[in-house]
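Sequence in, structure out. First:
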Amino acid sequence: MRSDLLYRLPEPPKGIVRIRINPDAERRIRMNGPWLFAHGIRDMAGEARPGSLAALYGRGREFVAVGLYDPSSPLRVRVLRRFKPMEIDARYFANLAFEAAAKRRKAGFGGETTGFRLVNGESDGFPGLVMDLLGEVAVLKAYAASWLPWLSTVVPPLYEASGASALVFRCARKASAGFAGAGLEDGSVLLGEWGGGTVEFLERGLRFQAAPCLGQKTGFYLDQRDNRARVEALSAGRRVLDAFCFSGGFSLAAARGGACEVLSLDSDPHALALVEGHFRLNGHFPGVAACRHTVRNCDVFEALPALAREPGRFGLVVIDPPNLAPRERNRATALSAFRMLAGAGAALAEEGGTVAVASCSSHVHEDEFLEAVRAGIASSGKRMASESVTGLPADHPASFSEARYLRCLFAKVVG
């Protein structure tokens, strides 16, 4: 068992930092806000180190919350618990880990789905940490360096709850320096044995492969599972376009659902190779075997308008771009892009066809995203006969507004 690296990491700092917060910050946290920003601090006492426990106090020195302190981040404290003080120790995190595992089991994951999220950050009591299970490998991703001294406390119960044979550590780029300073690199194996490369897992019986040490998130976009199931249900007998296909989750779902033809677009040749590999892995399904599948390496923003000059239209157009607004300042540009993509997608849809447009950016608010997509469809000269909006699946609980980052508009277009 590869536990030597994990237990060489620093221990949690001793003592508690006491922070008095301003009224605005107190109100936000009492209303389930998960973070204390630096500008919300009035004064503080005690030795504040990365990962120190910070007790937050409001008016009249009343206890408000306790969390993990991070001096290098504008999110100065990530809240662990509100209102009632409790000792934060190994038992506390073990209870949270097994609660998370129990919730995922209740969500109905069985032998047909072996890839799902076990811990979803703030909404599961682990602010700045997520953990996905991909078959036999668990992948823990840290978005805050304040977790470094707590990893030897939280990882063992999470690993036990996962039932995995190995646990791989990933870290966000903005937090990587803090972990690298302790010798913990992105892609390190913290527990168990794993030879690297790819892992295989199931989603609703479909076989997928992912590289836990590479790519975005933890190696696969598990949050689109429900939308992939919906695409499968809409695909029978249709010609389907999957724009920004990445590893082909929507393409493969459409094929198993009976699509007569699927065209997968992406700018990354490696992603297109993954799509083709996934079709080979699932060739035992009659729909996949019968589907005419084509991949096209292209700039999707340029390819969608160009496709309108080619013969034939699509019964289902799926547009799932990467995060178009990684920062607040990108929001206006992202909304313009959604209008363009929706309009181009609608122009490619046949009469009565369906256009599905997704956003994974928390900086793009749902109402403005929907307005942009509707305006884009209208600009194509078509109108929506019906629409529905979907969000996150059950293994991605969202207890505050910023966590509800995923939305997808399914629109039937006519005219």
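Second:
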Amino acid sequence: MEKGKIRVGITHGDINGVGYEVILKIFSEPGMLDLCQPIIYGSPKIASFHRKALELTTNFLTIERAEDAVEGKVNLVTCMEDEVKIEFGKPTKESGHAALLALERSILDYRSGLIDVLVTAPINKYTIQSNEFHFPGHTEYIQTCVGDGAEALMILMNDSLRVALVTTHLPVRKIADAITQEAVLQKLQIFDRALKRDFGISNPRIAVLALNPHAGDHGLLGSEETEVIQPAMELASQKGIYCFGPFPADGFFGSGAFADYDGVLAMYHDQGLAPFKALSMSNGVNYTAGLPLVRTSPDHGTAYDIAGKGLADEASMRQAIFTAIDVYRNRLRFDEAYARPLRKQYYEKRDDSDTLNLTAADENE
């Protein structure tokens, strides 16, 4: 098991949004420092500006390197030296660049073994775009940086519901072409593995949503269910994965059917995230499964409309930190339990009649 407190890297996200507000609010609670060693990636000048503007009192220790982090303190790694203009509620190239610098530094430190998990505050997916960042979001960027060939799976979750996505940040007109048998099978395998290793569920049950209305109505409204999704589910079942459906998506959440399953696999972003956020906006967590790095984030965005007003709810960010810690510990327990599997304690049955006959012949001689 791990020694010492888990080192939680936290990026400040878009500096014109609510990232610093929720981070500073969370670590104004002394008990948080008993659970982990926080290492925030950002700027002491920007953090101080937010703290003063929001009339918060959270103290932090400015450090130049994650190696200098002090246990029992809120450590803040300086990722930029330039003066940056802060404009609450406005998406700017400067705020996007500041978010990227913090993210890059956190990934570098993770690869160097200086943090154990990563929690990312919300970014603006447009302003962060640059020559260094040309991805639809955090998930795809982190997969490229630390995936080592592994495929990421986006999971939105709370205490009672986990929704994973086959496709993520993709234009609606391209979704149907992206729903292939290979993609559905791959996501089912990653999801099943994550439920077992990351969440400690020994025999997870996964509900699979249909792509088309009424699950295609036997081909009347689309054939993806019978030609793509069901064959992928059959292959998954052959691999020992308990998956059920495909279920029509419209009534699945409203009826409460999700409560019968450990996870739900949706075909596209809004199919899964719209009902999830309607059911759990205040304490939901975005978890990136399938990668060596444990990464979480709150399930809300930059919230420009309330930035700088002190109105941001920190509950989702706090839960993101808790989830990262829990998943990290679950992985340690799982890997330890399966590190040295027991050898077979039995011998396979075989036909030994020839040996018996030979022995009898020897006795007769």
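Remark: Confidence is low (pLDDT under 50) at residues 349-365.
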